[in-house]
Structure to design on (197 residues):
């Protein structure tokens, strides 16, 4: 055993350790839609986290994916710009404006948060609830458009590599359905359609 101080350091490879095959998070459009809608948009936090996690792992970046997922409004422009750069570097045509789409996402997210806080304080109900509902679909549109771009940029337009549902996905869907039910009951109670106890 030699102790050459000029030798390149060596680290053992761990069996099963594998970098992600893609720079960004590939998921089928239908799976994205089901998970986003069923979780009332909470899937968006995970979606941002996964995209930044893929970049961190693939390129050994010094970023924190969890805060970027939670505080996505501060990092949306960066992610959407990266997606656009991947499309352009691959010579892939995709009709969208990444900056405008990111701005729409940020604006809708901020207004959605404000309307949700107002609704929680019974200010402007049920209109704030309805506004939040509509804005959830605006946010969905922004992220869905970005997801289509991601899938194209990663050479898997249909997102087939991530189209099957996992047990965790089914649990989130179930929790989301319960939340949808409670939200519907809350709206119906505030509008007087059903009487509270």
């Amino acid at each position: 055993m030699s102790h050459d101080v000029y030798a390149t350091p060596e680290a053992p490879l761990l069996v099963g350790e594998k970098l992600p095959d893609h720079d960004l998070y590939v998921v089928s459009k239908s799976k994205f839609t089901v998970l986003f809608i069923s979780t009332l948009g909470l899937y968006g936090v995970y979606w941002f986290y996964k995209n930044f996690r893929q970049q961190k792992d693939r390129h050994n970046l010094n970023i924190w994916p969890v805060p970027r997922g939670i505080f996505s409004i501060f990092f949306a422009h960066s992610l959407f710009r990266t997606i656009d750069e991947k499309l352009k570097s691959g010579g892939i045509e995709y009709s969208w404006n990444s900056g405008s789409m990111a701005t729409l996402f940020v604006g809708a997210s901020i207004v959605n948060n404000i309307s949700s806080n107002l609704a929680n304080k019974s200010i402007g109900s049920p209109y704030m609830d309805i506004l939040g509902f509509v804005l959830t679909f605006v946010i969905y549109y922004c992220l869905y458009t970005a997801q289509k771009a991601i899938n194209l940029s990663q050479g898997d337009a249909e997102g087939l590599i991530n189209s099957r549902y996992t047990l965790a996905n089914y649990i989130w869907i179930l929790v989301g359905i319960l939340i949808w039910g409670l939200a519907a009951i809350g709206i119906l109670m505030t509008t007087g359609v059903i009487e509270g106890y």
The first helix runs from residue 29 to 38.
